[in-house]
Fold this sequence. Notes:
Elements: H1 3-56, H2 73-89, H3 96-122, H4 150-166, H5 174-195, H6 212-226, H7 233-239, H8 243-271, H9 277-328, E1 333-338, E2 343-346, H10 348-354, H11 366-369, H12 372-388, E3 392-400, E4 403-415, E5 421-430, H13 432-454, E6 458-462, E7 468-471, H14 474-479, H15 483-486, H16 500-511, E8 519-521, E9 526-528, E10 534-546, E11 549-558, H17 560-588, E12 599-604, E13 613-621, E14 626-637, H18 638-657, H19 662-674, E15 681-689, E16 694-700, E17 706-708, E18 715-716, E19 739-743, E20 749-753, H20 755-758, H21 765-780, H22 787-801, E21 812-818
Antiparallel strand pairs: 1-2, 1-5, 3-4, 4-5, 6-7, 6-11, 8-10, 9-10, 10-11, 12-21, 13-14, 14-15, 15-16, 16-19, 17-18, 17-20, 20-21
Amino acid sequence: MTGEQRAPELSGALAAEQAADLPYQQSALDAARAVGRCAALVAAVLGAAGLVGWASGIGVLRRAPGAGTAMSANAAVALLVLGISLLLTTRRPVTAWTVGTARATAALAALIGGLTAVEYATGAGLGIDELLFNDDATLVGTGVPGRMAQNTAAALVVGGVAALCASTSRLPAWTSQVPALAIFTLGMLRLYGFAYAVPELERFGAYKGMALYTGLALVLLGVAAFLALPDRGLAGLLMNEGTTGALGRRIFVIVLVVPPLLGRLVLAGEDAGLFGTRLGTALLVCGHAIVFTALVFPALAVGRRVEVAHARAEWQVRQNELLQAFMDHTPAVVFIKDLEGRFLAVNTMFEKSLGLPRERVLGRRDLDVMPSDLARRGRAADLVMLAEGAAVQREERLDLPRGPRDVLTSLFPLATPSGRPYAICGVVTDVTERVAAQREVRRAHQRFLALLESAPDATLITDRHGTIVMANAQVRRLFGRAPAGLVGTRVTDLVPVPRRRRHSALLCAYLRQPDPQPLVLDRGLYGLHGDGSEFPVEVSISSLQAERQTMAVVTVRDITERRQAEAERAERYEEHRRIAHTLQHSLMGEPSRLPYLPTAHRYLASVQDPGVGGDWFDVIPLDRDRTGIVVGDVMGRGLEAAAVMGQLRAASHALARMGVPPSRLMTGLDAFVGDLADQLVTCVYLVVDQSAHEFTLCSAGHLPVVALFPDAPARRLPTPVGVPLGVNDPGAGGVPFGQTTQPLPPGSTLALYTDGLVERPGTDIEAQIDILARTLQAALEGAPPDPKTLDRAADRLVTTLIPETAEHDDDVTLLLVGLPGPDGPAGPD
């Protein structure tokens, strides 16, 4: 059997032994106190008898038969008061009166002995020897009538000191017990001297000897003083409940009894002439050797028991330390109580929970350390567990000093190997957070049900296989079926039969995703009314994690009215688009097609507006050799931008026909835009002079013109920096518009455009213009700038720069102007 297996058995056995030893220990201490009181009482009686003998003249009360010395009157008084002092010291309960009287009588005894000792030391007579009675006895040696013996005086002084120390609880126990042994020894010397007829043991030198009654009283007083504190000091070692105490008491009795008996037997043999002194001494030594040899083996057995008990105690202490460490590191409250409800062990959590230190808990009952209600409940639970004889567990709410807490209490008995319970162990786990979490889960479930029922749309919850596990009341209104009747059926049963495969595939594909996100579907989904008719629905689907399972929350809404409204809205939108398209073309007009100046243009409306925007362009014949070309962009979209565009196109056309140079045309348009509220317009105007092979250019914040000259790469034309129209303050003059005149060789091509062609989110507009230039060069390289070539180049530019024209969110204008070569068509007549 291993140590771990033996630990519970040994712990129970030791606990049972300790419980059994407690009454024995208490009875032993009570017996020792009783012996001490009896000894003190008998010593006081001997002293009183001596006084009676002096007062009545009865010699036998003063002198024992066969003894030569009588008890002096002063010695009788001292023995009487010293016996009374020790009798009061050992009395229970201790009161102030008894302590005071005990100290006073002890001091009186010490005073009598001390004054007599002073007389012996100084040779002076203090007049105390015959203070009470006259002594006419025959003097012995240098004795004085009525004076007690020297050893008696010394014993009384030591006895008074022992009694005083025994009555003072603050002093160590040895201060009274060591003098008590000295008194006992002086008394035993007198008794040994009488027993062995050795007068030398009765006195010091030739002085008066100690009376036999006095020696007997001193022995009793020594015993009384020694046992006055039986649980402390030397007496505590002798009276302890363990095997060492029992061994000590036996050895003490043997030492006091056996040697005197052996000595008496040897002397009797010598007196009878059976053997001589030398043989008697040898027999005495041999007897002592035999006795003490016989004593060795019981002592060894007791010592072995002590060693085993010590080892078991050390092992148990170690186990208790480990158990206490385990208990202290346990987050739960752990306690051990005896069957009467006294706490034997508690852990740190117990101290924290009750707010009491361990020292104030151990050895006390529930009612002593706990609130009354909590203590009664705890004791009732202990009794129930003991009655059942098995572990019990319960969950309850307790009002602890730090507030009410929900706890899980486990109680189980600790039993001896025979199965008899000797203690109760309890483990109290704080489950407040868990109980609160469970309550919150229940409340959350109730809130979830309330939320589910309050949803305006039919809501279904399905498992990962599409089986309905919960439905709200709105499904009855939408599908004509009871919510309870839908639980356990397939969600696709609510879909028209021809469409179930597609609906099921969509749900399964959604649930197979590793992290499905909420999704709304309203295209091609249909539900089934209770009468069998189908209707379009919008389905919102999201995932729900419940008990390690992915579930789907499906919300279904009837969108029949929405579909009808969408159809009507689409019809109206198409009508509005046709109107806007007509308006846009009427405002923009159709630019002039000049046979001597081939052009190609593209206009793409924004998909966010019904074909209405603020871009425009115009080709204006001015005279025989000159042609005006204008491209503009009104910021914004819609009818307002289109209306401003129409006005600016008309104004620019009129100003150009008047022959004003480009800078003055921009100034005029700027003044026109300045009269409009919150308008911003970019514009570029150039005049092509075919005879002079040059052009004049002015820009109002517009994107640069890209030119492709013969035998040269396409590039941006340098243009004076100008601000957009509508920025200048008319009253302050503003920034003037500059113009530039540059050569334009025959066979050149110019590309004018708005920002919708080159500006896209996430791209660099400068890079886009470079792409435009490279694409223009690639499209026209080696080809004359005739209308067909320019038309193909325009398509290529739009396709390259705007791959997804159906999703473009800005209107786009592109104008390509070609200058024929030397052999091309001539200008107007």
